[in-house]
Amino acid sequence: MVVDDENLVREGLRRILGTFEGVDPVAGCSGAAAADQALLHRPDVVLLDLRMPDRDGLTVLADLRALPAPPAVALLTTFDAEEHLSAALRGGAAGFLLKDTPPAQLEYAIKELARGNSVLAPRLARTVVRHYAGAGARGPGAVPPLPDSPAPELTARERDVLALLADGHSNAAIGRRLFIGTTTVKDHVSALLVKLGVSNRVQAAVHAHRLGLVPADPLAGDSAGR
């Protein structure tokens, strides 16, 4: 489901989503109608514009998260909206996508969200992690407190994967950078989540920075994508 106050944007996104295999864009609506439409159509994923005049994205996010069995919500934003990122993550957003995300990356993100994973545009990754790591966030999607035990022991390969994950790269992009298969990357990510005691990639990235497990300037690379 697409939530945006501009009809042209809504319909354009729905047309793009309709070209993705296995993706059914069930509805498009304004922010004011989002909760009712979500109850009616029960989407797995909602793409929500962060800045809307009739009802701002953070308020709509709260409306959607209050629903029974709420959908995964990804905020559509621009690079200059970093002041809202921490609040949206605390509010339970499953991720952030830039409005200029290429279709192939958008398809990947939608399918990851539907699987219960989090997504984060690489250009926003460092900003999100910086805000979230220092916010002491609580509530939906909050990062669990650091354990009293020493930092988990990670293999060299796990550290490589974690550094790229913390920079917002997808599994496919990590695989390309490290010359390993996507399935192997998924195995490493699953192991990292267990070792760090977290449930998603954003939480893993935050913990990695808190524990000093990745450099302040993670490995540079290509954008997340398929």
UniProtKB/TrEMBL annotation:
<dbReference type="InterPro" id="IPR039420">
    <property type="entry name" value="WalR-like"/>
</dbReference>
<keyword id="KW-0597">Phosphoprotein</keyword>
<dbReference type="Pfam" id="PF00072">
    <property type="entry name" value="Response_reg"/>
</dbReference>
<feature type="modified residue" description="4-aspartylphosphate">
    <location>
        <position position="49"/>
    </location>
</feature>
<dbReference type="GO" id="GO:0003677">
    <property type="term" value="F:DNA binding"/>
</dbReference>
<feature type="domain" description="HTH luxR-type">
    <location>
        <begin position="147"/>
        <end position="212"/>
    </location>
</feature>
<feature type="domain" description="Response regulatory">
    <location>
        <begin position="1"/>
        <end position="114"/>
    </location>
</feature>
<dbReference type="GO" id="GO:0006355">
    <property type="term" value="P:regulation of DNA-templated transcription"/>
</dbReference>
<protein>
    <recommendedName>
        <fullName>Two-component system response regulator</fullName>
    </recommendedName>
</protein>
<dbReference type="InterPro" id="IPR016032">
    <property type="entry name" value="Sig_transdc_resp-reg_C-effctor"/>
</dbReference>
<keyword id="KW-0238">DNA-binding</keyword>
<dbReference type="InterPro" id="IPR011006">
    <property type="entry name" value="CheY-like_superfamily"/>
</dbReference>
<keyword id="KW-0804">Transcription</keyword>
<dbReference type="InterPro" id="IPR000792">
    <property type="entry name" value="Tscrpt_reg_LuxR_C"/>
</dbReference>
<dbReference type="Pfam" id="PF00196">
    <property type="entry name" value="GerE"/>
</dbReference>
<keyword id="KW-0805">Transcription regulation</keyword>
<dbReference type="InterPro" id="IPR058245">
    <property type="entry name" value="NreC/VraR/RcsB-like_REC"/>
</dbReference>
<dbReference type="InterPro" id="IPR001789">
    <property type="entry name" value="Sig_transdc_resp-reg_receiver"/>
</dbReference>
<dbReference type="GO" id="GO:0000160">
    <property type="term" value="P:phosphorelay signal transduction system"/>
</dbReference>
